[in-house]
Amino acid sequence: MSSPLAIGAVSAVLRNLLDNGLVDAGVPLSPVNVTAIAPDRIELEGPKATPSLNLFLYRTSPNQGWAEMGQPSFDGNGTRLSHPPLALDLHYLLTAYGVSDFQAEILLGYAMHLLHERPVLDRAAIRTALDPSPLGSSILPPAFQALTASDLADQLESVTVTPAPMDTEEMSRLWSAIQAHYRPTASYLVSVVLIEARRPS
User: DSSP labels for 103-163?
Assistant: First the structure.
């Protein structure tokens, strides 16, 4: 099972897949910035503005397939009797930003194709993404270093990535709530992430 770090680990793996995939595909835009932050934090103007792809986790929900496992149960003394995992689905927006004509559309097309070709985050890809440095994770930012302990690659079920289309009204409400200007966007469901606390043996 994965640790509570798994949610962040999924975002990191997806960002890595997109970042490396754009380089490998030879996207005719350079440089391209791939991020996993809130849309209102994307810099759209000024000298630092570049074509960008952003992955934003906007919602989590209980996974229905694992719902029958129920919640943890306890006896009358408060001793825990069952240890079902916290099974989550993660809902993402994949948004493209351009600084000139057609850049956003080009980026979104490449990104959607990459996720279409990689609908499962296999164990090897997860391990590589979470420990990408040949010198070890010590040179990476502290938050990223922590994700190496997520155990995401070792959970029982595979992590899948599937399109989750929204209608115009739903997408409009979401962007209004984010308080950012709408940009070309696709929505995705990532399932399932199984989080279980480590227990003393």
Answer: HHHHHHHHHHHHHHH--EE-HHHHHHHHS--TT-GGGS-HHHHHHTTS-GGGSSSPEEEEE
